Amino acid sequence: MYSLGINVGSSSVKAVLLEEKNIIWEKVIEHEGNFLNTLKQSLSERPFPDGTLCIATGTEGRYLLNMNNVLESVCIEQAISELNISVDAVVSLGGENFVVYTIDKDGKIITNFSGNKCASGTGEFFKQQLGRMDMKLTDIDSLPPDSKVHTLASRCSVFMKSDCTHKLNKGETTKGDIVLSLSNVMATKVIDFLKRARMSKGRVLLAGGVTQNRYIVSFLKENLPDIDFIVPKEAAYFEAYGAALLAAKAGAPMPPEDKRYRPGDSGFSSLSGLQTAEGRVTYLESRRGKIK
Predict the structure, then answer these.
(1) CA nearest 89: which of 68, 70, 111?
(2) How far apart are CA 217 and CA 230, in angstroms?
(3) What CA dihedral angle connects 189, 213, 95 and 98, to 10 degrees?
(4) How far from 125 is each of 42, 128, 188, 193, 277, CA to CA, in Å?
(5) Residue 80 class from Cβ within 10 Å (0-12 exposed, 13-18 middle, 19+ buried)?
(6) 56-109 pLDDT, tens digit each
């Protein structure tokens, strides 16, 4: 029996196909806000065996799929159960939000603590700053050994972006320093959430694409030595993996491609492009002169 789990996240689409409980393939594709086309691309690249059962999870984008859907928390519980991992909490490190789930002894979620609306310290913000430095995620695996952490204005994403740019322009930091400093900010944010959850010891599972940044994991272990942090190999697509496991029990057969999507059912609204308002903008030339 084949089962498919799809997680439509805030910055990427994750999909996992299982045969029985074995992973046949998995993929993570950034959608850049284009949910529907990314879903079509990710689901059309590989043929699905007849009778494949499927379930979708994630944010509002999951409603674009014409299939059963569940909350991410349910998928997390299922993945923990299947991996037979005993943990006290799960930290989901996503592109636009961090969430800490506290877990009871039976592997069920008790409560959760999520981040504020500021983007500073999130995975997507980190990726954007890499782009500003002409770096990719793969580049951070080989930072210069003399890279060090600098203090950044981390309370606001606008201030932090300006701080990074200012320090680079003045030659106060290197690109490696900025990568380490941003990683430290992200780790500090996770630490604050864990403190809110009253987690100072025990076992914590880390999930989400941000776990691929080894510096964040290192900073967490350094600052919280009494917590045993676990990063499973399924971390980058953890919720999709849980959804695939659930699909084997509660999924429905994959619809044909012409009936697979429900355009417009997402709760996200959209507006016309900024170019449509170009005629309403007045451009003022800057005036230069001597300071008085």
Answers:
(1) 111
(2) 9
(3) -30
(4) 24, 5, 15, 18, 27
(5) buried
(6) 998 777 888 888 999 999 999 999 999 998 999 999 987 777 889 999 999 999
Look up tokens 């770096």; give the residue: 135
Closest by CA to 2, choosing from 53, 67, 57, is 53
Q: Label each residue of the chain as H, E or C.
A: CEEEEEEECCCEEEEEEEECCEEEEEEEEECCCCHHHHHHHHHHCCCCCCCCEEEEEECHHHHHECCCECCHHHHHHHHHHHHCCCCCEEEEECCCCEEEEEECCCCCEEEEEECCCCCCCCHHHHHHHHHHCCCCHHHHHHCCCCCCCCCCCCCCHHHHHHHHHHHHHCCCCCHHHHHHHHHHHHHHHHHHHHHHCCCCCEEEEEECHHHHCHHHHHHHHHHCCCEEEECCCCHHHHHHHHHHHHHHHHCEECCCHHHCECCCCCCCCCCCCHHHHHHHCCCCCCCCCCCC
Longest pairwise C-alpha distance within the chain: 79
* One-letter identity of residue 69: N
Task: Identify the three-state secondary structure at position 105.
Answer: coil
Amino acid identity, position 292:
K
| Residue 217 amino acid letter | V
- Averaged pLDDT of the chain: 86
State the angle between helix axes of 157-169 and 123-132 in degrees (0 to 180), rounded to the nearest 10. Answer: 30
CA gap 230, 23 in Å, rounded: 20
Asked if residue 121 lies in contact with residue 154, where contact means CB atoms within 8 angstroms, the answer is: yes
| Residue the block writes with tokens 């409980």 | 21
Q: Would strands 98-103 and 109-114 be described as parallel, antiparallel, or unpaired?
A: antiparallel
pLDDT one-digit tens code per residue, 141-173: 888 888 889 888 776 777 788 888 888 888 889
